[in-house]
Predict the structure.
Amino acid sequence: MTPLLSVEDLVVDYGGLRAVDGVSFSVAAGSTLAVVGESGCGKSTVANAIMRLVTPTSGRVVLEGTDIARLPERKLRPLRPRFQMVFQDPYGSLDPHLTAERIVAEPLGHLPRAERVKEAARLLDLVRLPSGVAERRPSELSGGQRQRVGIARAIATSPKLLVCDEATSALDVSVQATVLKLLADLQAEQGLAYVFISHNLGVVREISQEVVVMRAGRVVESGPTAQVLASPSHEYTRALRRAALDPTTMRGVKPREHVRAAGGAR
């Protein structure tokens, strides 16, 4: 079966720095692939390259048979509704001057106003927000509510692929669980595929079927999530798992410090 998304030998350079070095993976329609690694490993750059927020130096990003890696913007624009992003910071990614209704309706500019309002209400209901949220601005919403507004906006164009860049990391654990449940339900209902960027192995274990482990811009291990996390073959993945299980991670120590202490990244 042809994958929905294929990332092939992706390279992204920033000046003299190679942020992503030969990354390859594929995502089937309706499935979730997680990209995991410590801060600075290149996983968010991979997300930005898929979304064409940065232009890859080389390699291919093939979405539904079309290589979008270096497609001119005039040809890319009609394809953008097919792939959308959910950002890490729901407050920073939403226009603070707009109501939730207007934020969600923004991608629907081709519809008459009455239809935009009706569709925005439907989408807000779909992500399980009460009707009163529609007239509130982001500053009047909780973090979980803001992220749900971001998800509603992302699915407004009926995409096939959502790229979620640390989409739950800014949320409290209980709120994180409800957002993950929402994403799983939306996937089941709409057949969405996810590329889920995360440093949290517990979240990765819960939401993904496949996982790619990155270190210093490269893939060091990949495969079925349950298999990779249960029996990792690479020392770096084992170090990430030890760090995730270390109770001191709950006391404010950064994941990078744990990996170094465990003998991983340098």
Q: What stands out?
A: The CA atoms of residues 219 and 227 lie 16 Å apart. The longest helix spans residues 173-190. DSSP finds ten helices and ten strands in the chain.
